[in-house]
Design brief:
The structure is a single chain. With 224 residues, the chain is an alpha/beta fold. The chain folds into two domains: 52 residues; 170 residues, Flavodoxin domain (Rossmann fold, 3-Layer(aba) Sandwich), CATH 3.40.50.360. The chain is 51% helix and 16% strand. It has seven helices and eight strands; from the N terminus they run H-E-E-E-H-E-H-E-H-E-H-E-E-H-H. Strands 1, 4, 5, 6, 7 and 8 form a six-stranded parallel β-sheet that branches. Helix 2 packs across helix 7. The radius of gyration is 30 Å and the shape is globular. 27% of the residues are buried. The N terminus is likely disordered.
Length: 224
């Protein structure tokens, strides 16, 4: 009888230790799961926040006679703008001048562009757009005399871009980005200007697969 009581006591102790051991393992496993799921949930939240941002592509472009590409039906910058829109799902807004530049030959256009720059002109454009719902705005134009076309400064000054993320791009024939990012930041001091992209106009017309690859890689680098 004495041995039975001892055996029963040992059995009770063994069962208690076994139950305690399982509880400890379960708690540890729960903590491990929480540690693993915590960062993942945070990453999903950040990604969702990024994709929820409404994106717009604003651009000025020109058809007709252009340097190094001849007479074109679609502007160099317009081609790049559409690629950006296709990649990001962004809305498009084309800046169309009230007084069209189309009739000018390339040589005549350079004279007009230089005159506008010397006079610090603000050419008018058609229509308007409500930017209140857009958080991110890609802004593009051809390089005219090493700067944004003056009509773009009209857009910068006519619209409240404060607090927006602005991303410049341009088309050129050898001048690269031409400080578009710095000039945009100077014009829109309360905006966040990100890394820009420069594309040769000749490539936009004649090597669109290569241009699309550059546009896609640039957008992915920016996180959009």
């Amino acid at each position: 009888m004495k041995y039975k009581r001892i055996l029963l006591s040992l059995l009770v102790i063994f069962m208690f230790m076994t139950i305690s051991g399982c509880s400890g393992n379960k708690a540890e496993t729960t903590q491990d799961i929480q540690k693993e799921t915590g960062p993942a949930e945070e990453t999903v939240s950040e990604t969702q926040e990024q994709t929820d941002k409404k994106i717009l592509v604003v651009f000025f472009s020109r058809t007709g006679e252009q340097y190094n590409v001849g007479v074109i039906d679609k502007g160099n910058t317009a081609i790049v703008a559409e690629m950006i829109s296709e990649k990001t799902g962004a809305d498009l807004f084309e800046i169309l001048p009230e007084t069209d530049y189309y009739p000018y030959t390339y040589s005549e256009l350079t004279d007009v562009a230089k005159k506008e720059q010397n006079e610090n002109a603000r050419p008018a454009y058609q229509g308007s757009i409500d930017l209140s719902d857009h958080d991110v705005i890609f802004i593009g134009a051809p390089v005219w005399w090493g700067d944004w076309p003056m009509i773009m400064y009209t857009f910068f000054e006519n619209n409240d871009l404060s607090g927006k993320t602005l991303i410049p791009f341009n088309t050129h024939e050898g001048s690269g980005l031409s400080g578009f990012d710095k000039k945009l930041q100077a014009a829109c001091k309360d905006s966040d200007v990100l890394e820009g992209l420069a594309i040769r106009g000749k490539d936009a017309q004649n090597d669109q697969d290569s241009v699309r690859s550059k546009v896609d890689a640039w957008i992915e680098k920016l996180g959009y």
